[in-house]
C-alpha cells in the first residue's frame, strides 16, 4: 500500500518530483519508455537477484498497478459511464 507516514514521504517526495520533471523533459513520445527504464533501474538497485526479492518486487508492482486503477482509472471510467451511458 502506498499509504506511508508523513515522515517517510518527506524523505522521497522531492526526489520523486525531480524524477517526474526529468521524465517530462524527455518528451511525451518517450514518456512510457523513460518511465519504464526509471522503474527498472530503481528495482535493479533495490532488489537482489534471488527469488524472494524478485517475488516482492513483482508483488509491489502489481499492487501499484491495482492501486492506480482503483484510484485513477476506475473513477475516470465511472465518469465516462455517466457521460456516455453504460455498455451493458
Summarize the structure.
The chain is mainly alpha-helical and about 90 residues long. It contains three helices and no strands.
H/E series: HHH
Please tally the helical runs, counting DSSP H or I stretches of 4 or more residues.
3
The gyration radius over C-alpha positions equals 17 Å
Distance between the termini: 32 Å
Uncertain runs are: none
| Mean pLDDT reading | 97
Number of strands: 0
Strand content: under 5%
Which structural class matches the secondary elements?
Answer: mainly alpha
Helix content: over 70%
How would you describe the shape?
Answer: extended
Instruction: Quickly count the domains.
Output: 2
- Major sheet: size, sense and barrel closure? none
Report on the architecture of this protein:
The chain folds into two domains: 1-46, no CATH class; 48-88. The two termini are 32 Å apart. It has three helices and no strands. The chain is 80% helix and 0% strand. The mean pLDDT is 97. It is an all-alpha fold and 88 residues long.
Amino acid at each position: 500500500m502506498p499509504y506511508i507516514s508523513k515522515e517517510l514521504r518527506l524523505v522521497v517526495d522531492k526526489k520523486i518530483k525531480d524524477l517526474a520533471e526529468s521524465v517530462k523533459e524527455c518528451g511525451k513520445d518517450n514518456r512510457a519508455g523513460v518511465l519504464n527504464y526509471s522503474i527498472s533501474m530503481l528495482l535493479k538497485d533495490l532488489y537482489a537477484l534471488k527469488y524472494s526479492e524478485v517475488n516482492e518486487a513483482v508483488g509491489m508492482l502489481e499492487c501499484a498497478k491495482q492501486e492506480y486503477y482503483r484510484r485513477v482509472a476506475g473513477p475516470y471510467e465511472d465518469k465516462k459511464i455517466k457521460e456516455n451511458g453504460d455498455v451493458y
